[in-house]
C-alpha cells in the first residue's frame, strides 16, 4: 500500500486530520490498533474551544454539532462557598465555548470518514514505524495474520501517550517534562438534567468537584479522590452524597440523581515531550502532551496540533513549502506550553493538596480572590478558557 500521509490512531485527532487532508485532496490512510466500537466507547471531555469548532466546520463535519451543541458564554467558580461567574463572552469580546461530547465528535468524524471512502484500518496490530528520518518512511502492521506495509511521505503520530509513534523516536533525542498529581478524578455519567446551565468548578476542603454536562438531559460529574481509591468502592449513592457535600447548599439542593451510565477514575498529570517531530514523523495530541482536565484543554490542544500540521502539509503539497515542515514542533509547542500553564494553574487553584501547609492554603485562597476580583485576572482566566488563537503558518 502507498499513500501520502500515514496517520497512526483513529481517535478524534487522527480522524480530524484525515478528514481535513481528504478535503484538501491529500491522500491519507489511518491505522488504528483497536476496533471502531472500542474507540467510540471512550468517555472523554466535552468542552470545545472556538478554534476547534471552526476546524470541525472547515472539515465539513459540523452539522450535528451546530444543531445539538450547547453554547456556553460563561462558567462558575466556587471557593470557600463563594460563587463567581466568569463571563467568557464579555471578557473576551464575544468568544464562548461549545459543550459537545468527544464521543459525538468521534462519531461524526467516523461517519464522514466512511462516507468519503478514505481508508481506515482498524485492529491493525504490531504497528511499527520505519525510516522516519529517511527519504522513504513506511509503516508495518499485522492484519488478519498477515504482515502489511504502508509506504508514505509523512507520518502523523495520533496514537496517544502509550502509542508506537513517540516510542519510535530515539530516547536521547527527547526531553520529557512531567508533573504527576497525587489524586485523580472520579467521574460519573448519568441521564439526569445538569444542576446548572453552565459548568461549575468548585474547591472544597474535601476535594475538588466539577459539575459538567453533555446535553440538557445528560450530566457528567467529577470528584477529586486519592489515587488509592477504586471505582468499585464507590456506589452511586456514595457518589451523589459526596457530590452534594462538596457543593454550596443552594446548588446541592438542585442536584438530580440517577443511575450511573459510566463510572471511572482518571489520574491527573501534566506532560510535554520536546521536540514533537523527528524527521518525517509528527506527534499530535496525547502522543506529545497530556494536560490535567481542569482547564478543558486536552481535546482542544490536540485540535490545534491538527490545525498546525494540516496547514503545513497543505502548503507542502500545494506550494512545495517543505521548509515549513521543520517549524511544526516550535509552533505547536508554543501553544502547548501556554495550555499546560493554564491547566496547571486551574488545578492548583481548585484542588486540595494534602502536603500544603497553612501558608500554601492562604496563598491559594488569595490567588482565587485576586483572579476573581480583578478585571485583569478575570480576563486572563476567560481568554485562556475559550482558547488562545491559532498561530498562522507563514
Write the layout of secondary structure elements.
Layout: E1 5-8, H1 12-23, E2 28-31, H2 36-40, E3 47-48, H3 50-58, H4 63-68, E4 70-72, E5 74-79, E6 82-87, H5 88-91, E7 97-99, H6 102-116, E8 119-121, E9 125-130, E10 138-143, E11 146-151, E12 154-157, H7 164-168, E13 175-190, E14 200-202, E15 209-213, E16 219-226, H8 236-246, H9 249-252, E17 260-274, E18 277-278, E19 281-283, E20 289-290, H10 298-319, H11 328-350, H12 358-373, H13 375-386
Parallel strand pairs: 1-2, 1-12, 2-8, 5-14, 12-19
Antiparallel strand pairs: 3-7, 4-7, 5-6, 9-10, 10-11, 13-16, 13-17, 14-15, 15-16, 17-20, 18-19
Helix pairs in contact: 1-6, 1-10, 10-11, 12-13
| Uncertain ranges | none
Fraction of residues in β-strands: 25-35%
User: What gyration radius follows from the Cα positions, in whole Å?
Assistant: 21 Å
Structural class computed from helices and strand pairing: alpha+beta
Number of strands: 20
Strands in their spatial order, largest beta sheet: 6-5-14-15-16-13-17-20
Q: Which fold name is given in CATH as the topology of the domain at 5-71 and 98-177 and 270-351?
A: FAD/NAD(P)-binding domain
CATH architecture verdict of the domain at 5-71 and 98-177 and 270-351? 3-Layer(bba) Sandwich
Mean pLDDT: 95
What's the name of the CATH homologous superfamily of the domain at 5-71 and 98-177 and 270-351?
FAD/NAD(P)-binding domain
CATH class membership of the domain at 5-71 and 98-177 and 270-351: Alpha Beta
Describe the sheet with the most strands: 8 strands, mixed
Helix content: 25-40%
The number of helical segments is 13
Ends: how far apart? Answer: 33 Å
- Shape type: globular
Amino acid at each position: 500500500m502507498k499513500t501520502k500521509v500515514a496517520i497512526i490512531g483513529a481517535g478524534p485527532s487522527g480522524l480530524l486530520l484525515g478528514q481535513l487532508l481528504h478535503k484538501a485532496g491529500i491522500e491519507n490512510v489511518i491505522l488504528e490498533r483497536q476496533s471502531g466500537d472500542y474507540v467510540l466507547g471512550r468517555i472523554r471531555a466535552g468542552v470545545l474551544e472556538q478554534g476547534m469548532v471552526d476546524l470541525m466546520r472547515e472539515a465539513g463535519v459540523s452539522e450535528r454539532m451546530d444543531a445539538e451543541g450547547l453554547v456556553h458564554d460563561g462558567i462558575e467558580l466556587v471557593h470557600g462557598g463563594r460563587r463567581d461567574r466568569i463571563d467568557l463572552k464579555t471578557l473576551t469580546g464575544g468568544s464562548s465555548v461549545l459543550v459537545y461530547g468527544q464521543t459525538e465528535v468521534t462519531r461524526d468524524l467516523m461517519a464522514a470518514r466512511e462516507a468519503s471512502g478514505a481508508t481506515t484500518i482498524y485492529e491493525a496490530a504490531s504497528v511499527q514505524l520505519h525510516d522516519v528520518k529517511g527519504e522513504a518512511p513506511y509503516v508495518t502492521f499485522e492484519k488478519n495474520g498477515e504482515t502489511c506495509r504502508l509506504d508514505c511521505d509523512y507520518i502523523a503520530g495520533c496514537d496517544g501517550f502509550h502509542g508506537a509513534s513517540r516510542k519510535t523516536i530515539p530516547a536521547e533525542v527527547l526531553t520529557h517534562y512531567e508533573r504527576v498529581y497525587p489524586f485523580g478524578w472520579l467521574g460519573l455519567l448519568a441521564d439526569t438534567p445538569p444542576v446548572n446551565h453552565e459548568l461549575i468548578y468548585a474547591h472544597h476542603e474535601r476535594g475538588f468537584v466539577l459539575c459538567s454536562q453533555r446535553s440538557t438531559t445528560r450530566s457528567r460529574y467529577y470528584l477529586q479522590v486519592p489515587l488509592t481509591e477504586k471505582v468499585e468502592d464507590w456506589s452511586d449513592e456514595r457518589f451523589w452524597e459526596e457530590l452534594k457535600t462538596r457543593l454550596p447548599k443552594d446548588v446541592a439542593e438542585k442536584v438530580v440523581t440517577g443511575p450511573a451510565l459510566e463510572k471511572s477514575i482518571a489520574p491527573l498529570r501534566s506532560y510535554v515531550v520536546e521536540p514533537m517531530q523527528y524527521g518525517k514523523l509528527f506527534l499530535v495530541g496525547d502522543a506529545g502532551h497530556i494536560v490535567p482536565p481542569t482547564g478543558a484543554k486536552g481535546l482542544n490542544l490536540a485540535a490545534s496540533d491538527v490545525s498546525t500540521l494540516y496547514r503545513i502539509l497543505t502548503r507542502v503539497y500545494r506550494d512545495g513549502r517543505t521548509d515549513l515542515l521543520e517549524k511544526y514542533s516550535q509552533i505547536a509547542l508554543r501553544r502547548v506550553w501556554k495550555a499546560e500553564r493554564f491547566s496547571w494553574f486551574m488545578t492548583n487553584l481548585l484542588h486540595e493538596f494534602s502536603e500544603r501547609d497553612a501558608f500554601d492554603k492562604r496563598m491559594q485562597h488569595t490567588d482565587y480572590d485576586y483572579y476573581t476580583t480583578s478585571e485583569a485576572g478575570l480576563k486572563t482566566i476567560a481568554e485562556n478558557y475559550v482558547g488562545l488563537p491559532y498561530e498562522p503558518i507563514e
